[in-house]
Design goal:
Layout (H helix, E strand, L loop, with lengths): L7 H11 L11 E6 L4 E6 L13 H20 L5 E4 L8 E6 L34 H13 L3 E3 L3 H19 L2 H11 L19 E2 L20 E2 L6 E7 L4 H20 L3 E5 L6 H7 L8 E9 L12 H4 E3 L1
Parallel strand pairs: 1-11, 6-7
Antiparallel strand pairs: 1-2, 2-4, 3-4, 5-8, 8-10, 9-10
Amino acid sequence: MTAEPLEAAVVTSLVRDATAAPSVHNAQPWRFRYLGARSAIRLFGDPERAMAKSDPDHRALHLGCGAALFNLRVAAACAGREPYTALLPDPADPWLLAEVRLDRPVRLDDDLAALHPAIHRRRTSRFPFTGEDIPTGVLDGLRAAARKEGARLQVPGAWHVQEVLHLLHDAEGRESLDPEAREELRRWTGMGGATPPGEGIPANAFGPRQHDVTAPVRDFATGRTVAGRGSATFEKRPQLALLGTTHDGPADWLTAGQALQRVLLQATLDGLVTSLTSQALEWPELRWALRDPASSMGHVQMVIRLGYGPEGPRTPRRPVEDVLEMA
């Protein structure tokens, strides 16, 4: 049975939910086009928002767009439409990342809509977590969420966590010595005074400085003074998870982005707070070393910090009219 065409207000609402997804440095590297005749929304990557230094192959861009795609699927299901999704539908246009057909009612067995309440509750928290252990059943549920989207979530043991932290600190040191990397960071944190409203990471989302650097939380101030920013002691034994895929091409990155967002939304519903860590993923030789050699996970796509603690502040989003075209 074919559903009625979508009204403009409904399309706008779906895209607004989609753009609540996380992206590297909150660059929001996506554009959407609604095709009324096909009842479809197309998702495009935005090369103008690519990170030339830290993401030259656009892997992180695809992850962010994959997360937005998952939000779109959740919002569509909540609106009563089944999101039939095709990844990379046109080989001649590599920036066309996905098309979502919305011309059918949602299936009765579709479980996506249950995640919708978490879309705008999910925040990135760069504040100290309590250190309270996460129950095994909750972690098992997050692993299952990743598997549903074709990815794997690995919770590393103590020795592996220390190795991950070592690699992250190595990446921070490399970044501090690289002028291009520092300039790119300033561009997207407003520290250089050039970040337009509605994008990037504002200073109130940096979180406090760490007394002892024990948690994998990127310091976006990188030694610069931020008015009103304090310091704090972070958890001594951070609880990390590695999200990965077997292969490592554009379709895998989109898959990983969708899996990442399903995990983050499920974690939010479970009462967890989260932050994402990508420094070591930005250096190929460090990224390869992140994986557990005894694991079948071929390629780590994101490091996730999980726990209990304060939510982070909302980060800005571009107006929907800036990213949505009605065709």
